[in-house]
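Help! Submission page says 'invalid entity' but I think these are all valid:
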Amino acid sequence: MINRLLVANRAEIASRVFRTCRELGIETVAIHSDADAHLPYVREADHAVHLPGNAPSETYLRIDLVLDAARRSGADAIHPGYGFLSENAAFARAVIDAGLTWVGPSPESIEAMGSKIEAKRIMKAAGVPILEAPDEPTEADLPLLVKASAGGGGRGMRVVRSLSELQTEIEKAQAEAASAFGDGTVFVEPYVERGRHVEVQVVGSNVFGDRDCSLQRRHQKVVEEAPAPGLSDEVRAALHDAARKAAEAIDYRGAGTVEFLYDPATERFWFLEMNTRLQVEHPVTELVQGVDLVELQLAAAQASWTMGWPDPPRGHAIEVRLYAEDPANDYQPQSGTLTTFEIPVENGIRVDAGFETGSTVSTHYDAMLAKVIAHAPTREAAARKLASVLSRAKIHGLVTNRDLLVQVLRDPAFLRGEVSTDFLGRDAEGAPQRTLDITTPAVAAAIALAEQAKAARTVQRGIPVAWRNVVSQPQRTVFEEATVEWHGAYSVDGHTVVAAGPDSVTLETDGVRTTYTVAVHGLAVDVDSARGHVRLTRVPRFVDPAEQVASGSLLAPMPGTVVSVAVEAGQTVSAGQPVVVLEAMKMQHTVKAPTDGVVTQIDVKAGAQVAAGEVLAVVEEEG
Amino acid sequence: MSNREAMLEKLAALDTEHAKAVAGGGEKYVGRHHARGKLLPRERIELLVDEGSAFLELSPLAGWGSEFPVGASVVTGIGVIEGVECMITANDPTVKGGASNPWTVKKIFRASQIAEENGLPTVSLVESGGADLPTQKEIFIPGGKLFRDITRASARKEPTIALVFGNSTAGGAYVPGMSDYTVMVKEQAKVFLGGPPLVKMATGEESDDESLGGAEMHARTSGLADYLAEDELDAIRIGRRIVARLNWRKAVAPPTAWAEPDEDPDGLLDLIPSDLKEPFDPRDVIRRICDGVSDTNAVVFDEFKPLYGTSLVTGWAKLHGRSIGILANAQGVLFSAEAQKATQFVQLANQTDTPLLFLHNTTGYMVGKEYEQGGIIKHGAMMINAISNSTVPHLSVIMGASYGAGNYGMNGRAFDPRFLFTWPSAKSAVMGPAQLAGVLEIVAQQSAEAKGQPFDAEGFKGVKELVEAQIEEQSMPHFLSGMLYDDGVIDPRDTRTVLGICLSVIENQPIVGTDRFGVFRP
């Protein structure tokens, strides 16, 4: 009987597990690093234990600290979530040894599935189809995939398209794997060009339907759905059967996922791996199967549950992973403050979020903000609903992959079910072009800003905005992305201002009325409307020239004469190294390099007279 | 032509005249100025004032009808800088290098009078080549007042700030010289008493602009410049920071809540007859410029003495939440009763420290035996006495006619209302053009008869027409505005806004009514 459960994880998955705990009357314990102290999951838990530091290796990956947290908080069970220690057999064992309930499969199952080579061996023996490269590959076997045994999430994978490169790639993969996972073991398997990633949810050896997780970017899942589209009944039945065999082969307990590579061209599938934990994408299964997988996990852990057959799947569910990342910039993770984070939770929409308005997204962990899931009678309806909710969500402060997700969900090829793991790499057909016009939202932003200035007035409050008795020029509101010209009483070429307020502006453009909501955070102006989200950056009206000097500029602290210049342009200097010596009022001042870097500019010579504040040299920080 | 069409035509003509002022020295000089990376006076002002705030330009038609360009090579007006209502003056360097002509001087005098009466800080955007030498006789002697006014303002604790963008030499050097704060733009400002040629002639010394009066020199050596600006934008930025630190507090706290008028101000265009002989009800105007009914304003206009002296409407209303007393002509003519009513009303407003608004549409005090015998002069004198000695702020709007002593009684220019604005429909003169020509004819006829000469009525017709046309021309708003006899011609629909700004501006000084008037002869 579990009374108090500690989730050895963070953010959305911790919140997700807590939710079920609350429903079951189980007390909850969160652990958190320094950076995560203010995330919602910490507040939601009944108790929270602080693990000092930020790096996962100092916090969420520290078995000793997690167990200590459980002891101190009086937890009697541990749920590992996904990632971190969730597939660490040593951790599972340590939890069990500490006399706590481990919400997960047996350490042996974890171990067996943890090694990809070992897992394949077991599966092959159980009659589950596996991918195997011939011992002596020939041209006909190309392309091949070199994979790190201990890897995951796409790391340590390399596609080889020419036999001559195979050896080098194996060596590279080994080196990479050794440094990344501390285990240099790699294996080679055939690479399916247009493969799909289809997986089967099991609890124990019972099958709870299938999912498609083909849509990936850099081998990270982005869009997941249940059930997997476009499978024939025979294929689906065979997949489920294979998953059942896989689970039985290791006498599996609790929730797990058997992943397969599916080739739609040949309708063949192969076992890839088994994840001995709750999957990120478990909500799509929960929605179509009408179950709570965390509840089932907890029941399995307490051996108090007997399994019946799950209901047949109902409708279709699609999940997207909303990341703080910039798709236009190689998916670079973003960090900063989510100044607004509001996803409309409507009928058929589920949001599993780890962050809220005002949360800080740090660089220490995965940049996933939330999972947004739509459940509808058909796949098309779910996609349409999800795209609509996403485009109406208010997400300010950070660049996200939201627009890309909306584009995928509206892509005709996606809607036809033509999904494959290289979908995002290929030229997608693109959604029916809804080019986001920036001018109109910028007009709305300019007017909202003017209304805000009006509301903040201390004098002449009743006077119309920008009123002039003699008009000489338009008012200009300048954003980095666009400049808006308007006149008092809000006359703007091409638009009619129907309503204006500090955070909402209604414009009639070409006979169409649209309401824009405008949020201002410092210089960032976020405009949301049914046409989507546009982020603008205000150009300040005035900038103090003293603040404009190139960063790294060394300024003369007072007027004086340059006694000596100790460096040359191009020279590498270390922090604190003298750059220029000045003499003024019989005192010598040494101007030193502020950081390690390179002298990119020297503006003075010995003997030169300089004024206070004059730039002497520029040292650019390296890297 | 409907009233609206007639008014719109006049407003279009007004726009055309305003456009002349905005055009400054014309395309060529504006282009040259911009090519030097410099901003026009109104561009400087637009950057100086708070974003989205109002700018009430004053006397934009100054110099209209004179030999000098409309606008008189300077822009003046009231703008809000960092939440502070300031008098802003800006030379227009595209008009003869920003040189001051007689109208420039008059326009600046008026601006400094407004600043003084309302206690406003002044920000001068300086770039002027000095006096227009051919007209120096009209500028030099009276012009000294410009400098006197700057330091007197300072003594009254009304800060003066000079942002120097270019030439400010000879006498002009005393504008930054007398100001509390000076900002000079690097490599642009030039402030000296005598330039290199004059210095050479006077002392034989060889010199250059920069060492005699450059911004760097004044910032680092002479100390005349308190701030050295990198460029024009920087000067404006610094100017705003100076105002932000003035610790400015208005004498009267602003009102917080009010309702917009119950009737659309746009209707004013239909209301004003194109023929001034036709009277109109000023209550219709009041309903379109004053606050509508709200929790804090149960009645739009509480009329005082509604049954007495009905040709003048008096009463109380609110505008942007501020209480005002209104005197408005209803039937043109002022009789004894109207004059007495007005006198009492002005006293009442002074008793309660309430500002007064005069809405002119008067043909003057009634003439004729009966009225003279009834004491129209002494009653008219009472009214003029009251408005002359009243110390609550007065605002005047000339809606239609403003003739004869009616102009005085209704607080015309000579009686120094804080602000006076004119509608395009207005006409103002000692009497109507036809009457004036007619009077001239009668006088000429009497003169001829006295000399025993025959009166050539046919021949005088030409003179009469000429006089009539001339008086008509000189009664027109553009002409009077050009003479600085008002603070501007405004669109009637903007009246509420203009008055709202004025009422806010006057609150920079305490509003205190008087109990001291001249001797009344009741």
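Support: the input was valid. A stray whitespace character was the problem, and the output above is from the cleaned input. The mean pLDDT of chain B is 93.
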